[in-house]
Amino acid sequence: FFFVFVGAMQSIPGLKTTFRTIKEGSGATVSKGNTVTVHATGVVKETGKTFWSTKDAGQQPFTYQAGVGGVITGWDQGCLGMKLGEERELLIPAAEGYGSGGFPAWGIPPGGTLNFTIEVLKIQ
Questions:
Q1: pLDDT confidence of residue 6
Q2: Would you tell me which of 55, 87, 97, 103 could form a disulfide with 119, CB atoms 3.0–4.6 Å apart?
């Protein structure tokens, strides 16, 4: 038997990025073209090091336009369909993140896999 439950990693059609719901949301959903404000924490899977968190002292929630390529592909597509208040974990391979070059200034190695926790705070 195969069971599907909240918390299991799920695939996104056409992508290698996977996600799991940490906390269910309700109401409005993130759609292409929406302006979305989130809390986000990014960790390099290979090293376990946090490279960015909007929850750190002095940081603000992050706002972006959904589904139009303004952020890395795994994030852009991985947040579509999230509901207001939802918290989701994204596992983003390098090809849908910062690629073979990584992002050395942030400590993301070449080919680094990213593990993001995203919480939707506002959808416009």
A1: 56
A2: 87
Q: Tokens in use for 18?
A: 């996977």
The model's pLDDT over 4-41, given as tens digits with 9 standing for 90+, comes to 455 688 999 999 999 999 999 999 999 999 999 999 99
DSSP state letters, the chain: -----TTS-EE-TT-S-EEEEEE--EEEE--TT-EEEEEEEEEETTT--EEEETTSTT---EEEETTTTSS-HHHHHHTTTPEET-EEEEEE-GGGTTTTT-BGGGTB-TT--EEEEEEEEEE-
pLDDT in tens, 106-118: 999 999 999 999 9
**Beta-carbon-side half-sphere exposure of residue 87 (alpha carbons within 13 Å):** 7
d(CA 83, CA 121): 9
Total-model pTM: 0.91
Distance from C-alpha of 75 to C-alpha of 66, rounded to nearest angstrom: 9
**Cα 63 from Cα 39, distance rounded (Å):** 9
Look-up: residue for tokens 């409005």? Answer: 28
